[in-house]
Amino acid sequence: MKDLLHPLGLVLASTGFLLLLRDLRRDRRDRALIALSVAYLASALSYAISLTPVWVRVDAFFGVTNIAVPLAQSCVIGVLVAQAVVLVHWAVPDARRARLRTRLLVLAGAAVIAALGVLFTLLTPAEQRPADFTLYYVHDPYYQAYLTLYITTYTVAETVLAVGCARQARQAASPWIARGLRTISVGAVITLGYSAIRISSVLGAVFGFDVRELEPYAWICGDIGAAVTQVGYFLPTVAARAAETRAWAREHLAYRRLGPLWAALHRAVPSIALLPPPRQLTELLRLRGIGFHVYRRTVEIRDAQIELRPYLDPSAREQAELRRTAQGLSDPDLAAAVTADQLRDALVRQRRGARVDEPAGWADARLPSRTADEETRLLLRVAAHFSPPPVHPAASAASAVKDQDPTGART
C-alpha cells in the first residue's frame, strides 16, 4: 500500500514545491511562503525516501540498515514544524512574536529529531524491512519508545494544525482562503487515523493484541490526509491563478473583438495610434497580458469618434434608431447598435468629405461608462454591431502598409 500511495504524494508535493519556487523569486522575504516551501520540499523527500527502491539504495549509500526510517520521519517532523510556522505567521500579526515562536518550533523539532536518532541507534535493526518495518520491530522496547515519541509529536502537531486552521477559517476575509483553511483542517483530521493505528500497534505489542490488519489503513489515512492538506494550502493560490487566467483570456478576446472596429477607424484617422499595435499571436504564445493595449485601443477608438464628429448626420441617427428599435433592441444594445451605424455612415461621409452643418451626438453617450472596464464593455457592444464600409482598391493598398506594425503583421 505504501508504494502505491507514496508516488501520488511525491508528485503532489514536488509540484507544489516547484510552483512555490516561482512565487519565492518574487518575494524572498515572505517567511510564511518560505516555511510553506520547506514543508512541500520535506514532504516530497519523505515520500521519496520511503519508496522501497529508494529505501534500499539509501541504506546501501550510508551503510546502515533501515537508515531510511529516521531520515524519512525526520523529514516528516520538518513538515510538521514548517506547517506550524506557516500557521504562526498567518495567526500572529506581531512579526517579532512570530519570529520568536518560529525559533521555539524549530528548536523543538530539532530536539525531537535528535531524540529519534538516539533511539534508532539503540534499536540497531539488523534486517531490512521496507514493507512492514513497524509491524516487524514494534515488539522492541526501543522502537516502542521511538514510535511513541514520533506519533505523539505527529498527533499533537496535526491536532494543532486542524484546530488552528479551523479557527483561522472563521476569520478569513477571502472565501477561497477560508475554503483552503477548512480543507487543511480536514486533511489534518484524516491523518489522525494514521496516528491512532500506530498507537494501537504499540499498545497491541504491550497488551498482546494484533492490529496487523489495520496496516493498509494507516498508510491510507496518512497519505490521503497529507494530500488533502497540501491541496488546502494551494486552493487560494489556484483560485487566484484561475482569476488571473480568466482576466488574461478576457483581455485577449476583447483586443481581438475590438480589432475590426479599430482597424476601420485607424484607416480613416491614422493619428489616433500613438504606439504600434503588438502582434497578438506573439503575446499569446508568450502568455503575456495585453490589458494596456486593450486600454489604448479603447482610448484610440474614442479619439477617432471625436475626429469623426463633424460627419455625424442627424438623419442617419434617426433612421438607425428606427431600424434597430424595429429589430427589438433596447439599451444598452440599442445605443451600441445605433453608434455602430453612425460610425459606418461617418466613415463613408469622411471619405467623401461630406461634413454636416449641425452634427448629431453619439448614441452611446447616453450610456454610463464610469471606469475603463465599463468603457471597454460598451465598445465591445458597439464592435459586435459594427460592419466596416467597403474600402476602395486604391485606399486598400495604401492602408495595407499603414496598418502594419514594425514586424509586418497586419492588425
Features:
single chain; 411 residues; mainly alpha; Rhopdopsin 7-helix transmembrane proteins; 2 domains; 76% helix; rod-shaped; DUF6545 domain-containing protein; transmembrane helix; membrane
Description:
The chain has 411 residues and is mainly alpha-helical. It folds into two domains: 2-244, Rhopdopsin 7-helix transmembrane proteins; 269-402, no CATH class. The chain contains 15 helices and no strands. It has helices at residues 2-26, 31-50, 52-62, 68-91, 95-123, 133-137, 141-171, 175-207, 215-268, 280-285, 291-308, 314-326, 333-352, 372-385, 393-402. Helix 1 packs parallel to helix 9 (215-268), helix 8 (175-207) runs antiparallel to helix 9 (215-268) and helix 13 crosses helix 14 (372-385). The longest helix has 54 residues, at 215-268. The two termini are 58 Å apart. Residues 394-411 have low confidence and may be disordered. Residues 387-411 are annotated as: Disordered. It comes from Streptomyces solicavernae. Residues 247-386 form the DUF6545 domain. The chain crosses the membrane at residues 6-21, 33-55, 67-92, 104-123, 143-164, 176-197, 217-236. Keywords: Membrane, Transmembrane, Transmembrane helix.
Short description:
It holds the Pfam family DUF6545. The chain is mostly helical and 411 residues long. It has helices spanning 2-26, 31-50, 52-62, 68-91, 95-123, 133-137, 141-171, 175-207, 215-268, 280-285, 291-308, 314-326, 333-352, 372-385, 393-402.
Whole-number count of domains:
2
CATH architectural designation of the largest domain: Up-down Bundle
What's the SSE pattern?
Answer: HHHHHHHHHHHHHHH
Query: How many E-type strands?
Result: 0
CA-based shape: rod-shaped
Rounded to an integer in angstroms, the radius of gyration calculated over CA atoms is: 33 Å
By secondary-structure content and strand pairing, the structural class works out as mainly alpha
- Provide the CATH superfamily of the largest domain: Rhodopsin 7-helix transmembrane proteins
Task: Quote the average pLDDT.
Answer: 86
CATH-defined topology of the largest domain: Rhopdopsin 7-helix transmembrane proteins
- Enumerate the spans where pLDDT stays under 50 for 5 or more consecutive residues: 394-411
% residues in beta strands:
under 5%
Biggest sheet: strands, sense, closure? none
